[in-house]
Amino acid sequence: MSLNDGVLIAGTLDVLVLKALSWGPRHGYGIGRWISESTDAELAVEEGALYPALHRMERRGWLESKWGKTDLGRRAKFYGLSRKGRRQLAAQTKRWKSYSQAVSLLLEKSSI
Amino acid sequence: MSLNDGVLIAGTLDVLVLKALSWGPRHGYGIGRWISESTDAELAVEEGALYPALHRMERRGWLESKWGKTDLGRRAKFYGLSRKGRRQLAAQTKRWKSYSQAVSLLLEKSSI
DNA sequence: GCCCGATGCCTTGACAACTTAGGTATCAGC
DNA sequence: GCTGATACCTAAGTTGTCAAGGCATCGGGC
Prior knowledge:
The structure is a homodimer of 112-residue chains.
Chain A: H1 13-20, E1 26-27, H2 28-37, H3 47-59, E2 63-69, E3 75-81, H4 83-108
Antiparallel strand pairs in A: 1-3, 2-3
Chain A binds a DNA duplex (30 and 30 nucleotides) through helix 2, helix 3 and strand 3.
């Protein structure tokens, strides 16, 4: 994980998924693609992290799922934000802002 | 961990510690205080996370330690950056920048 | 004299999350 | 018929943080 080796910083995946769904339901595979495409592959989500995260978040009541069909006519599970999920998105976005700003400020301090 | 419950995002502690030492050696307790003081307690490091992190980073050759005395005349273990540690600081700082910027950009996309 | 809080270090156990490495099924295109 | 993309999933292993303790020293207040 993290800044040394991993591809993702542990704990930031949830808010990315929530954000991906803020425009409306998407299926898991599409969420992963959205994240990587809209960051020019700067952020990449392993499927082994993504699917468990979706299940976890649904268990917590942040997401609601429903089987449906993709544009290509394929079977897929679509996830949508619940009311609780929207609150989480707002809260975690806010927390990310203050957290990342705090870290950035520290790291920008001129070392000698 | 992370944006929901924890106080720290898993994987960002290392770079904070490295940064704390970029002005010269410090002891563990002082590193923790530096982080929390210079962020107005926005970032707080549990000792149960800090000390294992120091040992880990020393094991990886990023830090070098030496027992000494604090300003108050108390016994303490001082950690300094090795050459490898400086490289890590540079690399992880860079990685944090691009990573956090990517996340921030995503989260700032206007939802609907 | 005694206790408390601050300074300083440490470890253990539980838990959460990510990575690695698989697996399944369908469909389009060559 | 095979490969790659689409779409889902799981299990094992590793890592890192949190919670909750522990120890020792020192200063100050009562």
